[in-house]
């Protein structure tokens, strides 16, 4: 009798927990949808902030976010892909080097975002940037300050583990027979990787890139002091320019805007845009991964 | 995909070439970025030959940029620190030039339902240093006072601490909000809250009248009262340059101090200096 | 697998040495090494910027002579206002850097902008711990039970509802959760419980649990489904009910994995910045009350770093906080990894 009660309560509790999670997602999504939908117009997406950021659109923030993730991907995806190739094709699983790299990737995945921000400031801006300035520009300060390049590099570092894990997973699904066939036909290892392994794991690389982009678009802490700007009258034109970013825009609009009431709609709509962006990216990644898995089964 | 990349590159290049001859860079206080942006917009409309670039980042960031030579003008919501002048002196053998461009009345706000209408500076100091903890002590309801302050890196925080708290530390339970909006937002939702900041407007809050001491008259932070100096908590908003402005820079600054430039100050919600 | 492949080939025919292959391999190895290099660099640079705290202080000599005054331009007639901030030299509390001796760092007051700056880290550490514990106490039971539900009881449709929900939750940028907590959740919680402070450690922890749930869920579910089938089948065959199997067979077998999940969840909560920055009120109170505002380590860095003068003591102390954060999460992850590996070992030996 008592056991039966325990049994049903365990089952109920676990189902209830699952329900709570689903409800939480629905509530957060619903609140932001309802709050932001009416403000979300074409003008909002394509206009610049106006009247002291109390009206107008968020185009510079959208542009900045895209620029950030593009530069980030250009840096991060190749490095991540090559690392994954090394880990799955070259390194023996027990070699010290491979274990060290794996450990580094895992550690990198666990470092708090804000620490990446500190590192970006301490290393890229204060050390590398200032170093470049001292060598090439004399006392002129060009690279030794927050800008979109350093923000992107910092973000690339943060998202590197995402790319590596995803690409490695994809490479693993390439059938061994394909590799063997290629090698048997006299192709070298490099040729095999280039012509057989990589083309067959392109979905994985794409998935990794998309997941990284979605993560990068949503993180704010690493760019707080490596390049995001409160407001810029112009779009960034050079790698040494600062930029506006969606997540950062949400943060400042909800905490620092001069008129909270007037900007309520903007805050919600910006949040909605960011959510839609990350979801769009995540879902395409999920879809790609699904396709990948089904191929693996085949 | 290729097309997107191509488009982006073209866009970046296109923006890159859209530069005219005279470029003035302005960097600094987030409080002033909107004001500076309005000035720039208006000035560039009248003087198309000049391009003015504005970046925020904070007063400290702006002053660092001035020291480092990456900006022509730094705007700051606090006066320059001794250590910063020291650095300017070291690099350029100048202490920099200070230009007062606007006045900002620091309002003290409470929830609209709060029966307390006015406070003296002494009382505000005691509230924020933790000596007065209940609204009853000030003639209000019997409720704990919830303190809202600003982050300790903001010019507003430093100003309030130096001039209202006479340099004393804030009580540790004062909540540090990252910006004026966050303070206003919090007060509007907190019946027992008190906060300070720029004259931002929102539903649900009211400005307290402030008096210099217990016996003087209390004033509201209106334009006249701030301008006349009757309202006791006001600060200047500054521009800094490395040396005495000349050429295009001088023209721009003179314009800021002209009637036109000062009219924009009023429009943005600060108070003109002349 | 690949090595075996290589070895087989070596046996069959002599591998010809090719420069291109050799260089490519070296280049690939070098690139793969980047991750490791950067972990080391993060270590070095975060600590490097924190290090000056511990070195002896050098006194700075003032270059400004007495009586030298900053120039002004376009001045206006001074009003007789007694309090205006033109008293540059009279009062300058923000000017002093203060020292960061060990006794100051272990103090209970965080007042970095003051006549005598106080860099007491204890309230910040306590604040981070408070929020983290609240978050994990809220998130872990829900996430683990939900994982148990998916792994053991859930009908197909429920799984197909829960999985995307978790993916969506994991995809929420933390700034979005912070925004939601600041605008909606804080008011809701205050109305519900009548807290004195609208923004407090509990609200922060509650919001944080949203960020922690996906991590704990995913890893727990992984651990639960990795429990060898023959164990649960044996249990069921012996006449145990489904829930008995779940509770007494599967759950204990997955304990190391679940423990790792909790540790990783703690690591995430401890390092998360935007949520706490927006939703906790950021007051450095040294108390154990959970309904009071708190200031966490990560939020302190996020809020103060942007405007601090580079190279000053305050700047160094913020880096020290970052270094502590790094060390803490690093240790947690290392421990978690040991547990996960143990679980894998068990799984393999079980087979």
Describe the structure.
The complex is a heterotrimer of chains A (298), B (274) and C (351). Chain A is mostly helical. Chain A has a single domain, classed as MetI-like fold. Chain A is 76% helix and 1% strand. Chain A has a two-stranded antiparallel sheet. In chain A, a hairpin with a 4-residue loop joins strand 1 and strand 2 (55-56). In chain A, helix 4 (96-110) crosses helix 6, helix 5 (113-137) crosses helix 6 (148-172) and helix 10 (246-256) runs antiparallel to helix 11. Chain A starts with a helix and ends with a helix. The model of chain A has no long low-confidence stretch (mean pLDDT 86). In chain B, strand 7, helix 6 (155-163) and strand 8 form a beta-alpha-beta unit. A six-stranded mixed β-sheet of chain B has the order 2-1-3-12-4-13. In chain B, strands 8-7-9-5-10 form a five-stranded mixed β-sheet. In chain B, strands 6-11 form a two-stranded parallel sheet. In chain B, 39% of the residues lie in helices and 24% in strands. Chain B starts with a helix and ends with a strand. Chain B has ten helices and 13 strands. With 351 residues, chain C is mainly α. Chain C has helices at 2-12, 19-50, 102-105, 122-153, 156-171, 174-193, 201-225, 229-237, 242-253, 255-271, 274-279, 297-304, 313-350, and strands at residues 71-72, 110-111, 118-119. Chains in contact: A-B, A-C, B-C. Chains A and C meet through helix 1, helix 3, helix 4, helix 5 and helix 6 of A and helix 1, helix 2, helix 4, helix 5 and helix 6 of C. Strand 4 (97-105) of chain B pairs parallel with strand 1 of chain C.
CATH fold naming of chain A: MetI-like fold
Query: What is the structural class of chain C?
Result: mainly alpha
Q: How many domains of chain C, as an integer?
A: 2
- Sheet having the most strands of chain C: 2 strands, antiparallel
Distance between the termini of chain C: 19 Å
Based on Cα principal axes, name the global outline of chain A.
globular
How many separate helices of chain A? 11
> What is the SS-derived class of chain A?
mainly alpha
**Biggest interface, chains and residue tallies:** A-C, 90 and 93 residues
Q: Any idea of the CATH topology of the largest domain in chain C?
A: MetI-like fold
What Rg of chain A is obtained from the alpha carbons, in whole angstroms? Answer: 23 Å
Spatial extent as radius of gyration of chain C: 28 Å
Q: Which range does the strand content of chain A fall in? A: under 5%
Q: Any idea what the CATH superfamily of chain A is called?
A: MetI-like
CATH class identity of chain A? Mainly Alpha
Please provide the count of β strands of chain A. Answer: 2
| Structural domain count of chain A | 1
Shape, principal axes of CA atoms of chain C: globular
Span between N and C termini of chain A?
48 Å
Q: How many E strands of chain C?
A: 3
């Amino acid at each position: 009798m008592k056991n039966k009660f325990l049994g049903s309560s365990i089952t109920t509790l676990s189902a209830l927990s699952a329900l709570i999670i689903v409800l939480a997602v629905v509530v957060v999504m619903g609140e932001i949808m309802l709050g932001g939908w009416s403000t979300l117009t074409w003008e909002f997406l394509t206009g610049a902030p106006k009247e002291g950021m109390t009206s107008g659109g968020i185009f510079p923030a959208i542009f900045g976010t895209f620029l950030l993730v593009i530069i980030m991907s250009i840096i991060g995806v190749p490095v991540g892909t090559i690392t994954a190739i090394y880990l799955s094709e070259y390194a023996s699983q027990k070699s010290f080097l491979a274990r060290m790299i794996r450990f580094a990737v895992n550690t990198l995945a666990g470092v708090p975002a804000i620490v990446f921000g500190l590192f970006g400031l301490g290393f890229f801006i204060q050390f590398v940037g200032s170093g470049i300035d001292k060598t090439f520009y004399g006392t002129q300060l060009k690279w030794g300050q927050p800008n979109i390049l350093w923000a992107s590099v910092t973000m690339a570092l943060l998202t590197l583990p995402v790319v590596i894990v995803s690409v490695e997973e994809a490479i693993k699904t390439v059938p061994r027979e394909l590799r063997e066939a290629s090698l048997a036909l006299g192709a070298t290892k490099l040729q095999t990787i280039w012509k057989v392994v990589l083309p067959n794991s392109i979905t994985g690389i794409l998935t990794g890139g998309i997941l990284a982009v979605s993560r990068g678009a949503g993180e704010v802490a690493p760019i707080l002091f490596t390049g995001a700007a409160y407001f810029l009258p112009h779009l960034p034109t050079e790698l040494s320019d600062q930029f506006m970013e969606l997540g950062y825009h949400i943060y400042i609009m909800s905490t620092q805007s001069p008129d909270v009431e007037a900007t309520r709609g903007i805050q919600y709509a910006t949040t909605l845009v960011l959510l839609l962006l990350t979801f769009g990216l995540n879902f395409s990644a999920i879809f790609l991964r699904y396709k990948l898995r089904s191929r693996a089964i085949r | 995909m290729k097309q997107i990349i191509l488009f982006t590159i073209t866009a970046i290049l296109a923006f890159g070439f859209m530069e005219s001859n005279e470029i003035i860079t302005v960097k600094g206080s987030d409080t002033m970025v909107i004001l500076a942006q309005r000035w720039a917009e208006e000035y560039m409309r009248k003087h198309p030959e000049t391009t003015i670039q504005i970046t925020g980042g904070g007063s400290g960031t702006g002053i660092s940029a001035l020291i480092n030579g990456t900006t022509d003008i730094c705007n700051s919501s606090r006066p320059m620190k001794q250590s910063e002048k020291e650095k300017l002196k070291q690099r350029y053998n100048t202490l920099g030039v200070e230009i007062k461009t606007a006045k900002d009345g620091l309002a003290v706000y409470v929830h609209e339902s709060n029966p307390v209408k006015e406070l003296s500076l002494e009382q505000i100091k005691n509230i924020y240093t933790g000596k007065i903890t209940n609204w009853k002590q000030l003639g209000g309801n019997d409720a704990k006072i919830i303190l809202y302050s600003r982050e300790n890196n903001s010019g507003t925080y430093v100003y309030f601490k130096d001039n209202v708290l006479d340099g004393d530390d804030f009580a540790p339970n004062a909540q540090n909000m990252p910006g004026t909006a966050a303070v206003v937002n919090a007060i509007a939702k907190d019946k027992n809250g008190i906060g300070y900041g720029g004259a931002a407007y929102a539903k649900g809050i009211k400005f307290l009248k402030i008096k210099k001491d217990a016996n003087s008259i209390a004033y509201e932070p209106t334009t006249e009262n701030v301008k006349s100096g009757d309202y006791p908590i006001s600060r200047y908003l500054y521009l800094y340059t490395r040396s005495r402005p000349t050429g295009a820079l001088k023209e721009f600054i003179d314009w800021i101090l002209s009637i036109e430039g000062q009219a924009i100050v009023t429009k943005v919600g600060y108070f003109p200096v002349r | 697998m690949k090595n075996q492949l290589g070895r087989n080939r070596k046996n069959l025919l002599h591998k010809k040495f090719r420069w291109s292959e050799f260089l490519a391999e070296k280049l690939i190895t070098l690139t793969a090494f980047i991750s490791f290099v950067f972990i080391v660099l993060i270590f070095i640079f975060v600590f490097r910027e924190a290090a000056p705290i511990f070195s002896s202080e050098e006194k700075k000599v003032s270059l400004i002579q007495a009586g030298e005054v900053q120039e002004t331009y376009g001045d206006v007639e001074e009003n007789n206002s007694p309090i205006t901030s033109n008293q540059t030299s009279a009062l300058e509390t923000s000017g002093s850097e203060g020292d960061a001796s060990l006794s100051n760092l272990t103090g209970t007051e965080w007042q970095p902008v003051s006549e005598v700056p106080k860099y007491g880290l204890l309230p910040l550490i306590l604040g981070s711990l408070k929020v983290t514990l609240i978050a994990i106490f809220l998130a872990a039971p829900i996430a683990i039970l939900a994982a148990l539900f998916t792994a053991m009881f859930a009908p197909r449709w429920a799984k197909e509802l829960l999985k995307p929900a978790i993916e969506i939750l994991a995809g929420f940028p933390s700034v979005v959760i912070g925004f939601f907590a600041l605008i909606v959740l804080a008011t809701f919680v205050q109305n519900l419980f009548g807290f004195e402070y609208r923004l407090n450690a509990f609200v922060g922890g509650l919001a944080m649990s949203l960020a922690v749930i996906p991590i704990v869920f995913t890893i727990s579910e992984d651990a639960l489904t990795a429990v060898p089938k023959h164990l649960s089948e044996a249990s069921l065959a012996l006449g145990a009910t489904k829930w008995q199997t779940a509770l007494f067979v599967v759950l204990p077998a997955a304990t190391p994995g679940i423990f790792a999940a909790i540790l990783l969840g703690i690591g995430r909560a401890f390092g998360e910045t935007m949520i706490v920055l927006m939703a906790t009120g950021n007051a450095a109170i040294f108390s154990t009350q959970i309904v009071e505002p708190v200031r966490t380590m990560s939020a302190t860095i996020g809020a103060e770093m942007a405007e601090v003068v580079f190279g000053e003591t305050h700047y160094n102390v913020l880096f020290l906080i970052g270094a502590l954060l790094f060390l803490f999460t690093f240790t947690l992850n290392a421990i978690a990894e040991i547990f996960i590996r143990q679980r894998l070992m068990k799984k393999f030996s079980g087979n």
